[in-house]
Amino acid sequence: MTADTGRAPYAKDPSGSGSGHHEDDSSLTELGYRPELKRTLGNFHTFAAGISYISILTGTFQLFYFGVAFGGPAYWWSWPMVFVGQLMVALCFCELAARYPVAGSVYNWAKKMGGPHVGWLGGWMMMTATMVTLAAVALAYQITLPRIDPWFQFVGDGTGSSAAANAVLLGTVLIVFSTLVNAFGVQLMARINSAGVFIELIAAVALIIFLAVHITRGPSTVLTETYGLGKDHPWGYFGAFLTASLASAYVMYGFDTASSLGEESHAPRRNCPRAILRALVASFLIGGLILLFALMAVPDLFAKQLSTEGLQYVVLVTLGPTIGEVFLWCVVVAITVCVLAVHAAGIRLMFAMARDNNLPAGSRLARVSPRFQTPVVPAVVIGLVGVVILVININQPQIFSVITSIAIIMIYIAYLLVTTPMLIQRLRGEWKPAEGGFSLGRFGLPVNILAVLWGAAMSLNLAWPRAEVYNATGPQHWYLRWGAFLFIGVVALGGFAYYWFVQRHRTGVLAEHASESAPTGGPATAP
Question: Global pTM?
Fold first, then answer.
């Protein structure tokens, strides 16, 4: 850190040409920011950030039971369905990542595509959802660690409220760890995250092989078995399938994290789009094979434990306790790096919004630590909020599950706040991809249309007032059934009202973060 300017020193240009940083930072200058965060991340680091946020082992082990319970083994078809829809979104994001590889990617993209008000709303929705997601992922420790060894059940016997209390304890420890790692700088986070992703990928491939060796039935049986679900649904099995598809929709998102670390990456215009696509495609292939082979290998396809204990049961009963526990430890690693990635993405998003003075105490939130060269205050704030959200789970687990589901809907809506104004720009002929960078060319318009239609349809499917999702344990309450619409309405309208009447009058790039040629202070203007 230089004493006279407060700028973080540039990392060495890996090309040796001396021109790399000028090209890397051009998008920052275009947005009115000066470079502050240290560029240290390479290709694998950005890929690891995206794939660890998606976190195949975490998502599949956490939600397999849900899919089977509501759709039977045939719910597997929702995996490729969700992938195709999210691929349309990811392709749009790749164009944006090549054009604007900056911190708080979704926020800045929404701002550039739709103007400052749309950008603020997209960032607000994404930031709120990220903090809830952080707590939700941390709770996954409870699903796995006590299955490995009862010693990890520190509170009670693991039933009733004791399970929730123990989940909060384990989750709090994990969030504290994540806060410390992220506060100490992106290099430490990236090293731990990359090592964890490497272990996760090796374990996932090994799990596929082990399950393949134990296959007892063909895929035709698995992919057509519905358990007779949907008979009482007015839409038949299709209605049951839509509910079960949430198990896949809850997993395949967060690939934009690769671009959110763009200000700390080498050659982000080239590497970030690649990382987004690689993370999503790798997650689809590996996760799809794990789910398929698990259903083909489990000794009893009709075992009740499939819809209650999920993949943990399949691994232990199919591979035996010793090998099974090894894989469960790998799931613990996956959960850990997933929390690190979610936390890191939230920090960059909060930093990006605060840098535009779009949050209270923006100057403090956007301050980059001279020692660690990372925004430390957002790391602590997000960690504290995550722990507070966890505490809700102790006495109100049903409400927590509702909020968790809603957080994922908010992420899909935040994505829509990027793809929809991007589509409008395309229709007006105003969208221009990065020169020489990733471009969809003539396929841009149809892909963008599909991305918007997919995002709207899945958001509606996720928010649909199903009792089995939003009021599963009873007693029935209308405000839980309609929790998605109520909660999102309160967060969106309440947050935007605060922005409109208070914060927008202060919006503008803070002087200490502005490039020398950029105007500072005052209301931000639409691009």
Answer: 0.88
